[in-house]
Amino acid sequence: MPTIKDVALKAGVSATTVSRVLNNRGYLSEALKQRVYSAMEELNYRPNELARSLSRSRSNIIGLIIPLVSLPFFSVLTSYIEQHAYLNGYKLLLCNSQQDKIKELEYIDMLRSSRVDGIIMGSHTLEVEAYRQMNLPLVTFDRQISPGIPYVCSDNYTGGQLATTLLIEKGCRKLAHIGGHPELNLLSNLRYKAFVETARQAGIWHTSLHTDNNSFDVLAYERLLEQLFREHPGIDGIFAGSDLIAAYALKACRESGRRVPADVRIVGYDGTALCSLNHPSITTIRQPMEDMGRLAVELILKQVEGMSVPSANILPVKLQEGSTT
């Protein structure tokens, strides 16, 4: 197995220079870097990542804990986080918590043992103290844990306003919101708050149905939609807490003989591919998912470098009108 000394001999440089190339330290000409890389390729040399991380007290690995990677929003977000981590020389260690507290704690222990440089949290089953005890650079999605822990989210309140206002402007007079439980400590609940306040200010009748504490139980949304149309058959506008819920609402309308948008208008939230894949295409509030992924990585890297970062990182949303309104 070739060593760093073999690479140095092949490239005609010192072992220290090879180490500097591997760790991107100091000024190095592109020609010299290419000579070292060519020598590595010819010798099929692979650096020992563990030894490198121990020597520089960094692993260049970011941990990501999310509730369900199969959900469209988290799958797209994960892809962007991985992309921007990689562009910055970092690898991603993905953990799928499935909203299980024990599993989430086990993943946190594993990530700390793996010497990750920071953790991005998209799962929120633990109490605040559990996050504070991590003693690692941390960024959360859609949850404000404490002033010292930065979070990234879209402008949920404005998104809720845009969705509800659009339904009212389209002539809807009996509105419903379907989403996660409003008592959960999630910033996404501002969508529901905006829905209520906007409908109330316009004098529009409104109701809401929510899941239990597992806000990602998609089967529960089918039951809620059946309940909604059974208890309130005159509903003519639905603001769904995600594009996935909006797709279920579209399915429920079709199965109950309701025409969209003639009888019921629907607005989702996220801006995933689900919107264009459905027929009719779903009107949604688009979150800037690539910007959110990039920003989460940037906030971790700045903390790794010892820099201070803002606690609140709220990105703007846009109304993307499809054919359901």
UniProtKB/TrEMBL annotation:
Q: Which PROSITE patterns match?
A: HTH_LACI_1 (PS00356), HTH_LACI_2 (PS50932)
Pfam families for this protein: LacI, Peripla_BP_3
One annotated GO molecular function: transcription cis-regulatory region binding
Asked whether the UniProt record includes DNA-binding among its keywords, one would answer yes
- Which UniProt keywords are listed? DNA-binding, Membrane, Repressor, Transcription, Transcription regulation, Transmembrane, Transmembrane helix
TM region(s), chain numbering: 61-81
User: Which residues does the UniProt record annotate as the domain HTH lacI-type?
Assistant: 2-56
Q: Which residues form a coiled coil?
A: none
Q: Could you tell me the superkingdom of the organism this chain comes from?
A: Bacteria
Task: Reply yes or no: does the keyword Transcription regulation apply.
Answer: yes
The protein's name in its UniProt record: LacI family transcriptional regulator
Q: Which organism is it from?
A: Paenibacillus riograndensis
Q: What is the lineage of its organism?
A: Bacteria, Bacillati, Bacillota, Bacilli, Bacillales
